[in-house]
Amino acid sequence: MNQFFKFLFASCLGTALALMLLFFIGFSAIAGMAGKASQQEKVAVKANTVLEIKLDMPIPEKTNNLPLDPFQFDQKDVVGLHDIIGTIRQAKEDPDIKGIYFNATYVEAGKASSAQLREALEDFRSSGKFVVSYANFYTQNAYYLASVSDQILLNPVGAVDFRGFSSMIGFYKGMLDKLDVQMKIFYAGKFKSATEPFRLDKMSDENRTQVREYIKGLYDNFIADIAKSRNIPETELRAIADNYDGRSAQSSLKAHLIDRIAYEDEVFDLMKEKIGLDKKDKLNRISLEDYYATKGRDLNLSAKDKIAVVYAEGTISDGDGGEPGNVFDAKYVKILRQIRKDDKVKAIVLRINSPGGSVLASENILREVQLCKEAGKPVVVSMGDVAASGGYYIACQADSIFAEPNTITGSIGVFGMIPILQKTMKDKLGITFDTVRTGQYSAFGTPFYDFSPEESAIIQERIDWIYEDFLQKVAKGRGKTRDQIHEMAQGRVWTGEKAFEIGLVDGIGDLDRAIASAAKLAGVEKYRTTEFPRTKSGIEQLIDQITRNKDKDDDYVRSWIIRSELGEMYPLYKSMQDLRNAKGIQARLPYELMIY
């Protein structure tokens, strides 16, 4: 009896402490949000102001659609790609904003996103306002954006990391061999190389071919854009990269990669001069985040008709929710179903930035896309940095598909991997297993027994069936035959430009073009956009994890800690975690695209 009361007391105490913690967190969140609101009210855009753009956070498609620090109550918005572009456009028309100070070293964005940001900066310059760039060191992505500037300045001991592109893939077969782990691997599509790191120690010829082709396409666009802005012939620019002439500030200046070697205080003096201020005058600067918070967005609330923009970014997984910035099928089915039943929504734009994931989850989302179309709501897809494999699966039957020139898409193929730990457990740990079965396949799928030839045949048959089904779905959506799709599928990855040439997408264009296309298909002229999913603050995300998934709330906290520590290397870690947590047959990009 005494033991019973001890457990009862401990349970009640734990519950009380949890409630107190939630109360404290909620109270602190309200106080923090109130403080944040009052801070935003104080931010004012004065005359002769310069908009400062740093881009020192990961850039999600949708503002705040990523794990946020739950204990930073004064955290500013992590402005999404399309809101950054909208904010730059707003600054272009704002008479109080005289120019942009681009002060970025690392830009955590894919090649398609970077190209869109660059276009926004070019458009800003077309107004006659200036863009001045300065950094202690330019990475290639940061320099790509900075290259549109009126003037590019660099710290005297800095450099421009301008050297061309490379794509690196890690291979784990040697490690698995040392551990006696057998990987049972099944796939369809000779270019479907997601399994290569677990069965080879280098790229296959097919994989090397596709990587070389798409990385060349990305690099050609990169060189062409910079050559045009810097007025340097493309051949000369390629030679500068091959010789690594950006290795120092002095050599960067000689190669005309930059316009001036300077310290930041000299950059401030330069911008004062452009505005017409004296050196002793104060230079008013406002950050992108503060300007976004102050100006807000034009929602056009007077329009009754709506176009729903659904952001599908991240790995496609089974379930109803988890880390923000991922696509969970139950969550997105619910969103699309809600949109389908909303009479005010006349069309849907599905913005995809996803390497794919679970076939089952992709199928469930595609089904809801089909139902939206059957309900009379046109569906248009807009592809971001990546819309491949499962990302293409959910796009393939849209009324129209738009991609960026630098989008990575295709990868129409499937795979499955199962580790067999029988030898590992016996030879490394001395653990063996025995079993009693009621049938031939009773122990099918366990990692502690190697597969029989019959079991392997069953899995490969399933893989082949899903691949064929994938081909049929794409053929129906693209208006082509199964054999035509098979010719361009087989797991092969394409750039947006190549995908347009072969008919996997309908046009080259950004989100705005996709929205305009959706409006035209729906026959509406006056409309407003409404965005999904709803994003939450860091503290709301934590509370959601605690209340919805009590036994895994530490996963969320661990996620943002690891993200903050790994920085630009986090996507590689995330990719490995996604593979580790993957269930069932997968339709996902062959690997994490790490292009340097």
Describe this structure in words.
This protein is of the alpha/beta class. The chain folds into three domains: 1-42; 45-163 and 244-295, 2-enoyl-CoA Hydratase, Chain A, domain 1 (Alpha-Beta Complex), CATH 3.90.226.10; 306-419 and 467-588, 2-enoyl-CoA Hydratase, Chain A, domain 1. It contains 22 helices and 20 strands. The strands form five sheets. Strands 8, 11, 13, 14, 15, 17, 18 and 19 form an eight-stranded mixed sheet that branches. The chain has a six-stranded parallel sheet with strand order 6-4-3-2-1-7, sandwiched between helices. Strand 3, helix 4 and strand 4 (151-154) form a beta-alpha-beta unit. The longest helix is centred in the first third of the chain and has 41 residues, at 2-42. It is globular. It starts with a helix and ends in an 8-residue tail after the last strand. Mean pLDDT is 86; it is low at 1-40.
From the structure above, extract its key features.
six-stranded parallel beta sheet; 2-enoyl-CoA Hydratase, Chain A, domain 1; disordered N terminus; alpha/beta; 3 domains; single chain; 22 helices; 16% strand; eight-stranded mixed beta sheet; 596 residues; globular; 20 strands
Name the poorly predicted regions.
Answer: 1-40
* Termini separation: 65 Å
Rg, alpha carbons: 26 Å
Global outline: globular
Give the name of the CATH superfamily of the largest domain: 2-enoyl-CoA Hydratase, Chain A, domain 1
- Please tally the helical runs, counting DSSP H or I stretches of 4 or more residues: 22
The CATH C-level name of the largest domain is: Alpha Beta
Structural class: alpha/beta
Beta-strand fraction estimate: 15-25%
